[in-house]
Each structure stands twice: as structure tokens, then as C-alpha cells.
Amino acid sequence: MAIQRVEVGERGLVASKNIRKGEKLLFVPPSLVITADSEWSCAEAGKVLKQNSVPDWPLLATYLISEASQMKSSRWRNYISALPRQPYSLLYWTRAELDRYLEASQIRERAIERITDVIGTYDDLRLRIFSNYPHLFPEEVFNIETFKWSFGILFSRLVRLPSMDGRVALVPWADMMNHSCEVDTFLDYDKPSKGVVFTTDRPYEPGEQVYISYGKKSNGELLLSYGFVPKEGTNPSDSVELSLSLEKSDKCYKEKLEALRKYELSTSQCFPIQITGWPVELMAYAYLAVSPPSMSRQFKEMSAVASNKNTTKKDLRYPEIEEQALQFILDACESSLSKYNKFLQSSGSMDLDVTSPKQLNRRLFLKQLAVDLCTSERRILFRTQYILRRRLRDIRSGELRALRLFDGLRKLFN
Ligand SMILES: C[S@@+](CC[C@H](N)C(=O)[O-])C[C@H]1O[C@@H](n2cnc3c(N)ncnc32)[C@H](O)[C@@H]1O
Known about the structure:
It is built from twelve helices and eleven strands. It has helices spanning 43-51, 56-69, 77-82, 95-101, 107-128, 144-157, 219-226, 253-262, 280-290, 299-307, 319-346, 357-413, and strands spanning 2-5, 11-14, 24-28, 159-161, 167-169, 178-179, 188-190, 195-199, 211-212, 240-245, 268-273. Helix 11 (319-346) runs antiparallel to helix 12. It is elongated, with a radius of gyration of 26 Å. 32% of the residues are buried. S-adenosylmethionine (SAM) binds next to strand 2, helix 6 and strand 6. Residues 8-12, 84, 87-88, 156-157, 175-176, 178-179, 226-228 line the site of S-adenosylmethionine (SAM).
């Protein structure tokens, strides 16, 4: 394989000759892999972080910045100089951009949480360690901008190696491979050959781009960490988060909240919906939300299933409130759909007021990502709306038939 400019993913690995299905490719030895145990060019800085028991992710983020600042003496200088200056993940979107383009999607919340976490991690390191060793960690080098860069690199390139006890690593060269939703193979340490490899799950011809899987992730998760959205309808693992909330006016609000809290859930909860359907946890939450006071004894059981912490009872059925529960999900789905419709309808005329070409390019690029994401999430919601409406129609027409039958029988006996 060779690194080349490619259509999907800018740079990627391309087959230089025929590759068979089941072949082991790459062979990156552990000495060429970056882990939390890698040697630091500035040994003293590494020692300080380890003495302070800094966990793997912040340690690796600091390591990357440290090695990048020691460019000439770092053994990773070629690798680091080939890394993107600005990884595309949502870490690089400003709050205003997230609000403007991702208002309809729950991914906006996830991005805000992630940015807050990165800032919190940096602040913690600065207060606890960097400020005590300014000669090792000067602020001109170790600051929030460089941390956003290094975390962006980690989010988009770090891999977990199952056969190395799940250890996280940057694998130079192998991390030039792009993701395909159709591929089901990933990087791992191969004990017999003592190297990081991946085993192809299909043949490739010379000139074809070779892909791996970054995991079964939704389009939103791919945008969040890797900064791209697969083409609509190509990701079988795609899902959209639907937010459900308890009504404050609910007569049993307090009891329901108590039951939810027992299972670490709150009055507003997100559940992933796929094109193939919704999870049992979402249905359980909907049952809880619509339950009348007479069902208070079931609140705990419903919350347990909604939290996925109940290992004994997986599925729940309450035929007496099924219609209300489905209607409750349909209402949430339609309210979410109206936000997507609003954004997608207005996106065409957005950003025509910008004059600087650089700013315009950035805005058009981010907007296109947001439009792609929102179109794929809306597609799942449309499908869900269709299924819910059909089920409700079936339930209601079944009830109507039963009612007519009952009426007919009553007339017969009167
Ligand atoms: C592990 S790197 C892969 C190498 C990368 N293409 C490069 O030039 O450095 C992950 C990054 O590649 C890009 N990428 C990977 N798969 C992609 C895909 N299917 N479509 C678009 N971009 C992709 C994204 O920018 C992502 O953050």
C-alpha cells in the first residue's frame, strides 16, 4: 500500500498490487507505536506527568505537544509534521457555529460537553502540574489552543488495541487509513507477527483505496470525532438521538423522578433510534412517562428497563397504555422533525452575507457537513414517524372494530 491523495478522506492508503481477502497488512512493530509508555524527548516532563498519575488520554495529548515542540530531537518528527494542522473534528467549531448549524441535532450537546471536557482537562493539568513546572511546560507551548489540536488528533486517530489489553495507541502509517461503513475490519496487535496489523475482509485491486472501520458509529459520532459525514443511507450503524421528557404537570412527577434517579436517569433522556427501529429502553421510558397513578407499582420496573441496568427482564409490555406511549414517542419525534425541517429549509439562504472568501469557505464547508448530518438524521425520524403512525392506526382501528363488535352484540341482546 502507498499513501496517496484520494477522493474520500483527502489522503489515504491505496493498494499498490492485488490484495487478497484475509491478508494481514501493515505490520507496525510496538517500538513504532505511540502509547502512554513511549519515551519522552524531554524525559523530565514525562517523569512529572507519571509521578502525578495523569491518565492515558491527557498524558498522550501532552506528549504530542511536547514532541511537536522538540521537533528536531523528537523521533516522531516525520510523523508529527505529517499530521493535520487542524483536525476536522467538532472541537474546532465555535459555540456560535455549533448553535447555528447543529441546533436541530443532539450532537450539538455532545460537542459542547466534549469541548468543556477538553478545557476542564487542560485547566486541571495547568493548575495541578504545569504551573508548578513552568520551565518544563511553558504556557506559550502548552495552552488551550495546542491542547485542542492534540485532543483533535487523538479523537480522530487514536485506536484501542484489543489484543494489547485494550491499550490506546497512535499507530503511525496505519492511521492514514480512512473509514468505510461497508468494511468490518480494524487495527489490532497480532501476537504471532508481533506487530499492529489489520486483516482485510475483501480483495482490493491496484489503485483501489483500502479502508478500515473506525467502529459501528452513527453519522453524528463520526462528525463529532472525525469531522466527516458518510453519504446518506450508506451507514447501517447510523442513528439519531431522540430526547424524551417527563411532563412537569404529571400527577406522579415526583414518584417517577425518584424511580428514574434510582437508575441514574433524569427527567429528560436521549435514546438512539435506528432506521430499523427504537430500543426497548426508549419504550420503557415512554411507558413510564404516560403511566397513570394506578400503575405506580410498575414505575421502578419501567425505570430499570429504561436504564438498561435490568438484566432479568428485557422487554416490557403494557397493552393498556401502549397507544399513549406510542403517541408520546410520535409527539417527540414530530417536535424533533420540525427543528430539522426548519434548519434544512433555511440552510439554503444562510451565510450569503459573508464577504471574506476564507470565512465564506469555512462556513460553506461546515454548513454542508451540518446539512448532510441533519438530512441523514431526519431520514431516520421520518421512517420512525411512519412506523409509529401505522402502529397507532392499527391499534385504533383494532379498538374501533372491537367497539363495533361490542355494540353489535349489545344491540342483539337488548
Ligand atoms: C485516521 S485519519 C485518516 C487519514 C487522513 N485521511 C489524513 O489525511 O491524515 C482520520 C481522518 O481522515 C478523514 N476520513 C477518514 N475516513 C473518511 C471518510 N470516509 N470520508 C471523509 N473523510 C474521512 C477524516 O478527516 C478523519 O478525521
